[in-house]
Amino acid sequence: MLALSGCDQGTPLAVVKAVAAGVPSLAPFFDERSGLGQDAQVRSQPVRGGLQQGDTPGLYGGSKQPTVCDVERLEQFLADRRNERKAEAWARALDISADRIPDFLERLTPVLLRHDTLVKNHDYKKGKAVPYNSLLQAGIAILVDRQGLPAVKCSCGNPLRPFEGDTSRISVAFENGNKKWQGYEHASVVAVRPASRPLERLALVDVEQPERGIQRPVGTTGEDDSTFDTRERRAVPDLTGTTFGQASRRLADSGLAAGHDGQGLPPAGARVTATDPPAGTELRFGEYVMLSVAGGGSGGGQGATPQGPGEGTSRGATTPPSSPSGASGSSGSSGSSGTTTPPPPSSSGPKPPSSGTSGPSGASGTPATPPGSEPPASSRPPGSRPPSSDPPAAPEPPTPPPSSPSPASDPPAGSPPQVTSAPPPGDPPAPSNPVTTIAPPPTSAPVATGTSPTTSAPASGEPASSGPAAGAPASSGPVTGEATVGALT
């Protein structure tokens, strides 16, 4: 207990200001009474994990009332010359230029929070946007970007960015009229991470009629909504062998949420080894499927860099597929999100859960060596010879190592170059007078057993031999243990 206490004391708590629904901000960018947005009374819903991806079905809510956020009026305020300084500060907080504000607003979509959500909020003080961490109560109307990240608080126009701290290490300050609201639970607080792809539509839940789902195209305010029944059962797809990013997208397309029991979100390249419940189980819209993963590759998750709002894509997040699909479309709209058939065994394939390994061999980007192929040079043991394409040489008879080998010396000037390959470490040293070894010409006389056209190692206590001279025929008599020395010509 003392060790845990000391560890907790070493990790400071992030101070977070509570922002209750319907309570005016003390230093807003625009007057809360100007009609920019209207909050609702929504009780925070239970959630699996403090980090949620922006395309999670049911993460946000909607309403039959289409004007929860008046985007056109906000654009008019920011374009007004009397608010020029305010517009510049607003744009800098969102990392865009002031001239791109209209294009940026066209990409945003109004929604209602269904969870108490952590964000980096901004007040407007002395001509500048002053950032601070805040907890927005469920029911607050916001604008989200194309990756599902909160971007603007509707009622006051304050710019929002992703919360960057640890959701489990916060200290919420309920002050300035923002009293602790009914239903607040620290365990149900969430922070949103960008979806791994630009979204075409958001899958919402009607906050007044939860059995009614809303498909809202990105960049619209409700006029193009379509509805569906959230009570309809949806089968869990077979996700074993896919990556976490692929599994998350396929679940979102099916109207189900991806969950993970570990801290944070796994890397997008981590391989899914199992799902709970298993494939084929039927769930209602927005219910969680817990993913077990092994290892990880590149990309996203908790470490994904928040989006640069002007681009509509994540800076440093995983690369979106070429044909992004909606949040809860048909199975045929998943595009490159993955397939139900696990990939064939390869360097990037998953390992069985019982193997006890932390990830696949190809998780770090280096593929495993297939059977029968040569390993790379860096993977050969020290001292081993590199592979050769030449046919193997005839085996030499084993000879005992010399007890007193002659030290190797440089060849004299003018000597022919040595063409025999260098012996591996541990072999006897080369003879002091290297010569060119040439195989004897074929003769009718049989060669005695044990002879070799190559230079043999000398016996113990005998001087090193230079082998037969170039062009000299091999002896047909029996080998006596001494080599014939020929003169080089």
From TrEMBL:
<feature type="compositionally biased region" description="Pro residues">
    <location>
        <begin position="422"/>
        <end position="432"/>
    </location>
</feature>
<feature type="compositionally biased region" description="Pro residues">
    <location>
        <begin position="383"/>
        <end position="415"/>
    </location>
</feature>
<feature type="region of interest" description="Disordered">
    <location>
        <begin position="294"/>
        <end position="489"/>
    </location>
</feature>
<dbReference type="InterPro" id="IPR046704">
    <property type="entry name" value="DUF6777"/>
</dbReference>
<feature type="domain" description="PASTA">
    <location>
        <begin position="230"/>
        <end position="295"/>
    </location>
</feature>
<feature type="compositionally biased region" description="Low complexity">
    <location>
        <begin position="354"/>
        <end position="367"/>
    </location>
</feature>
<feature type="compositionally biased region" description="Low complexity">
    <location>
        <begin position="445"/>
        <end position="481"/>
    </location>
</feature>
<feature type="compositionally biased region" description="Gly residues">
    <location>
        <begin position="294"/>
        <end position="313"/>
    </location>
</feature>
<feature type="compositionally biased region" description="Low complexity">
    <location>
        <begin position="314"/>
        <end position="340"/>
    </location>
</feature>
<protein>
    <submittedName>
        <fullName>DUF6777 domain-containing protein</fullName>
    </submittedName>
</protein>
<dbReference type="InterPro" id="IPR005543">
    <property type="entry name" value="PASTA_dom"/>
</dbReference>
<feature type="compositionally biased region" description="Pro residues">
    <location>
        <begin position="341"/>
        <end position="353"/>
    </location>
</feature>
<dbReference type="Pfam" id="PF03793">
    <property type="entry name" value="PASTA"/>
</dbReference>
<dbReference type="Pfam" id="PF20568">
    <property type="entry name" value="DUF6777"/>
</dbReference>
<feature type="region of interest" description="Disordered">
    <location>
        <begin position="214"/>
        <end position="280"/>
    </location>
</feature>
